[in-house]
């Protein structure tokens, strides 16, 4: 693969295989490629080590071939689902990695807030659009989100995922989902005790998360919102805030 | 709907909507129709109230119209996923219920051990075949299981689900899945502290279940079994052994 500086991906971490802990692919063995850098700064971000520019020195520039080499080594050379996350992976040049990996049978899911549309979204197997609710303190650019859905086109499965902390977040999710009635919806309770960027395995309030999960189920059932899925972050229930599992 | 005694379904309980706690439809709002009676008697059965003939008097004979009326009342008349479980629902006459419900937009999933094949499996949206591993003390009839897959035909999604307690169960699941390489696989750790049939909300060992879940993830990852999904029983994590949630 010819490689140029323009192809270089800023990689925060590559780990796995482990099971996907959340959303549409929950429970599925997955290798995670987490890119560094984000155009958002959600107040409850659980991946600040891949977002805060103070950690920029830890984000290794890697060509798509080097990333694929590492994924291949982790999966024992067997095709596996690769989850591209961040930060916001949509601000990285991932088209070459996806094309090369797909040629070897790997499948690719990408999770983004939907603020930046890329033409290579069309080559994904799954595009998870996770617009950020009011509790994040971010503003949603609805035009950009719609451009992401359009960039994906008919190829990949496209779903909406919402982190929900409170009633205002839930109301936001309902309204956002109503803008895209064809897209399946995944709701998950937020982790209100996320790890700090240098604080692997920080203390976590599992009971608080389960309480919010129960509330979310009750809320969805009461509203007869049958198109929604309600799921926890399994990795959080299994491993707490520990990183790289 | 014309109704005869032959149409009558022995119903243990109808409840919901709540989220599906396990397997391929995890997190999805669902109304559960649990039928009474089973041709198996797994030693760790978590639904003895629908299996043990001592509770037969609690299994109300209902025609398909009456069942659908109840489902409709629970879902507020809105089409929702209906999960047919048991006991072994395959020994009940469910074809009429499925046909009538589908005509109104309801979708149907059925979960069975795969010991009895029915032609109306072809009308399901999802058929979950859950053959029982050695820890159940049951023997698998592989011919019957294959007949279930064939009865389903190309219409419904068909998946395998295995409850796994130990290494022998895991080995069984691997071998069983190898017989049906086209079917997606769902593994879940068993609940070794199931409720007694009259013991709603019995004490449960959540830490033990989570420990078995971690072990199962490690096992699947070590074997590079990337076609498998590993999922807990969410309802058990959320509500313990409580019934009807």
UniProtKB/TrEMBL annotation, chains A, B:
Substrate binds at residues 19-21, 34, 85. Keywords: 4Fe-4S, Iron, Iron-sulfur, Lyase, Magnesium, Metal-binding, Queuosine biosynthesis, S-adenosyl-L-methionine. This is 7-carboxy-7-deazaguanine synthase. It catalyses: 6-carboxy-5,6,7,8-tetrahydropterin + H(+) = 7-carboxy-7-carbaguanine + NH4(+). The gene is queE. Belongs to the radical SAM superfamily. 7-carboxy-7-deazaguanine synthase family. One of its GO terms (molecular function) is lyase activity. NCBIfam families: Bsubt_queE (TIGR03365). S-adenosyl-L-methionine binds at residues 44-46, 87, 130-132. Residues 25-241 form the Radical SAM core domain. Transmembrane segments: none annotated. Catalyzes the complex heterocyclic radical-mediated conversion of 6-carboxy-5,6,7,8-tetrahydropterin (CPH4) to 7-carboxy-7-deazaguanine (CDG), a step common to the biosynthetic pathways of all 7-deazapurine-containing compounds. It comes from the Bacteria. Its EC number is 4.3.99.3. Homodimer. It comes from Paragemmobacter amnigenus.
């Amino acid at each position: 693969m010819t490689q140029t500086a323009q192809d270089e991906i800023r990689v925060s971490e590559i780990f796995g295989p482990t099971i996907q802990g959340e959303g549409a692919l929950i429970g599925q063995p997955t290798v995670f490629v987490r890119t560094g850098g984000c155009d958002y700064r959600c107040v409850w971000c659980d991946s600040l080590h891949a977002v805060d520019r103070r950690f920029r020195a830890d984000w290794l520039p890697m060509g798509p071939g080097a990333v694929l080499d590492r994924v291949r080594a982790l999966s024992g050379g067997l095709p596996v689902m690769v989850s591209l996350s961040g930060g916001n992976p949509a601000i990285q040049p991932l088209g070459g990695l996806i094309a090369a990996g797909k040629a070897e049978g790997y499948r690719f899911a990408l999770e983004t807030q939907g603020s930046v549309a890329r033409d290579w979204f069309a080559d994904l197997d799954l595009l998870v659009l996770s617009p950020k609710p009011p509790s994040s303190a971010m503003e949603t650019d609805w035009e950009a989100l719609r451009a992401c859905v359009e960039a994906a086109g008919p190829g990949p499965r496209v779903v909406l995922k919402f982190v929900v902390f409170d009633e205002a977040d839930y109301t936001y999710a309902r309204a956002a989902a109503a803008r895209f009635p064809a897209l399946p919806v995944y709701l998950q309770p937020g982790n209100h005790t996320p790890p700090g960027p240098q604080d692997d395995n920080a203390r976590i309030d599992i009971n608080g998360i389960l309480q919010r999960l129960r509330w979310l189920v009750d809320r969805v059932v009461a509203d007869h919102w049958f198109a929604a899925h309600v799921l926890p972050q399994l990795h959080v229930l299994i491993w707490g805030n520990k990183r790289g599992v």
